Amino acid sequence: MDTTDNTTSNITSFAADVKEGLTAKEKHLSSKYFYDDNGSRIFMEIMKMPEYYPTNCEFEILSQQSGDILDKLPFKGKFNIVEFGSGDGMKTKQLLSAFMDKGADFTYIPIDISQEAIDALEKNITDALPNITMKPKTGDYFEVLGELTKSSTPNLFLFLGGNIGNYPREDALDLLKKFNAGMKTGDMLLMGMDLKKNPRIIQKAYDDPHGITKAFNMNLLSRINSELDADIKLDQFDFYSNYSPKNGQVNSFLVSLKQQQFYSKVLDTTFYFERDELIWTELSKKYSFDEINELAESAGFSVAHNFLDCKHYFTDSLWRK
Ligand code: AVI
């Protein structure tokens, strides 16, 4: 996913964002900083937890309904499948393999800012699907999008995993409008979106009994210690996560267990915390179908079809520009 930030240029933005976020009136740290090497490993553990349903739901959709997804595409002949932030490609492989079985003529173009991620993905995909035509791109989504609009080949864009839910409304809309601006009329976007459901199921997925989601959040503090040469005492912070069925938001926080301070040598700054003060770390938004339609239309798309898992927990929503 594009939340990977372990590039040299981002080390400075991490420092600046930590300083801004931890001196703000309502403290916050962006969830995009979860995904350094250690955080990415913890996220893999999250995806294996029985409580974290989105991965299995999307895997089910893509392994059982990719043929139906292909049937809904309006393309005649050759097309590109362009994937934003592809991860290890486990789920995408299901779609690519079904498309190949049905004789679709496509080029797979995964885009990621991490060369390492792209190299691993290329090996993973070509090992499983040796006959695939694949043109991976390393770099910023929007630079690559610019190149693609110049060609007349139609595109299916993939933004899987429910990552859109981690963007606050205005940022989500902004991102989708940018995707839209880089697409031609008739291009399609398949987007993973987590749905509103029984609140207990969502609560358990984000406040798991194994402490893995807590470790995922605490990793932000470990990063500050190691990358910004700070002296945060990790055991003086806790994790709290809450799903509100009224607005469909899971909000996650780190909680200061006492009045305390820490110093970062890199930032040459002391940060102060009251007892029970919160650091907001993540939004994970769950959608209703009305909200999906509204978001699509606000960004210049129309919803062609919602592909659902058997429990109706998650959708791969197919949008048309
Ligand atoms: C990456 N993203 C879609 C995950 C989610 O479900 O919001 C990140 C995550 N945070 C806690 N658990 C998983």
UniProtKB/TrEMBL annotation:
Pfam families: Methyltransf_33. Gene3D superfamilies: Vaccinia Virus protein VP39 (3.40.50.150). Residues 14-320 form the Histidine-specific methyltransferase SAM-dependent domain. This is Histidine-specific methyltransferase SAM-dependent domain-containing protein. GO terms for molecular function: methyltransferase activity. Transmembrane segments: none annotated. InterPro entries: EgtD_Methyltrsf_superfamily, MeTrfase_dom, MeTrfase_EgtD-like, SAM-dependent_MTases_sf. It comes from the Bacteria. Keywords: Methyltransferase, Transferase. GO terms for biological process: methylation.
